[in-house]
Design goal:
With 115 residues, the protein is an alpha+beta fold. It has a single domain, classed as Nuclear Transport Factor 2, Chain: A (Roll), CATH 3.10.450. Helix content is 30%, strand content 45%. It has a six-stranded mixed sheet with strand order 2-1-6-5-4-3. The longest helix has 16 residues, at 3-18.
Length: 115
Amino acid sequence: MDDHEVSALIDRFNAAWNARDLDEALSMVTDDAVFDATGPAPDGSRHVGRAALRAAWEGIFSNPASHFDTEEILVCGDRVVQRFRYTWGDGYVRGIDLIAIRDGRISEKLSYVKG
C-alpha cells in the first residue's frame, strides 16, 4: 500500500470508531491483530486477535458519548503515528496510537495517553 492508501484505511478505521461500528472496525484488522490498551495503569493491557479486540473495544463502542478527534496523522510506509483526543461524557484524554499495517489491514494498534 502507498501512503495515500494507508491514510484512507486509517480514515475509514477512525470513522468506524466514531460511528461506533465495531464490526466495520474489526473488518480492517488482521486475524492476529494486537491492541495495547492504555489501561489499567501503569502498562495497560494487551489483546491479541479479533475476538480479544472485540471484547476490549465493546465498552468503548457502546458508549454513545465516546468520540475520537484526530489531531495529526503521520504515515511512513507501513507505520502510522496518530495523535488524538478521546472524549467520553464529562472527560477526555490526549494520546497517540502507533499503528502497523500488514497486507492492507491494521496489524497493531498500540495506544498511549498522557497521564
